[in-house]
Amino acid sequence: MALASILVVDADAQVRALMARELRELGHDVTESDTAGSALKLVRRQRPDLMVCDFSLPDLAGVELLSDVRSSEELRSIRVLITSSRGDSDDVIRALESGADDFIGKPVNLLELRARVDACLRRPANLGSADEITAGGIVIDNVGHRVSVDGTFVSLAPREYRLLLFLLSNQDRVFSRKQLLVHVWDRDATVGARTVDVHVRRLRGLLEPFGYDRYLQTVRGSGYRFSLDG
Description:
Blueprint (H helix, E strand, L loop, with lengths): L4 E5 L3 H13 L3 E5 L2 H11 L3 E5 L7 H9 L8 E6 L4 H9 L4 E4 L4 H13 L9 E4 L2 E4 L4 E4 L2 E3 L3 H12 L7 H8 L8 H15 L8 E4 L3 E4 L4
Parallel strand pairs: 1-2, 1-3, 3-4, 4-5
Antiparallel strand pairs: 6-7, 7-8, 8-9, 10-11
Helix pairs in contact: 2-3, 6-8
């Protein structure tokens, strides 16, 4: 794991200290904050490599702080890991749609925290605006929740939209069906891997007339990825 500067933002002092201690033991330079306001000041001053931020803060929602960071030309490259005690699909989707690099539910499992922090730090910095995500001729308007392909608007069901948004936001990364169920569906959903396969097939069918279906790739034994290569 690469050593990095990390800002942990959580109003719960005990939870914040637990995460900060775990990350410091790994050798990271960790700063703590209990509000969005103080966190934003620290972000502007320190420019950390990663911000671990709770979804619910006393002065501002964590995703609103995330939106402030992503809307700033100087700050948008900071990686952001959102935490939440609810951990339901609405929180997950809202966090990812707002530009979060990843999401972890509470109570935080420290081994999972290590893994997700490591994954965030290995990921290229988020240099794009969360308002619009593009891949070749595919454009996702993340404000109007509309998708166009080569200039033609394509109608997607809500879950298909979320799946495409997640895959395009994490291009070239392979996700297992279980990971996609966690990120795109309810974390405790009773639906199985077959559900993911069905939605991927629908997306391919919608992209096929434009020749983009081949970019939604099956990685045998691993899962799915969206990549303009291959």
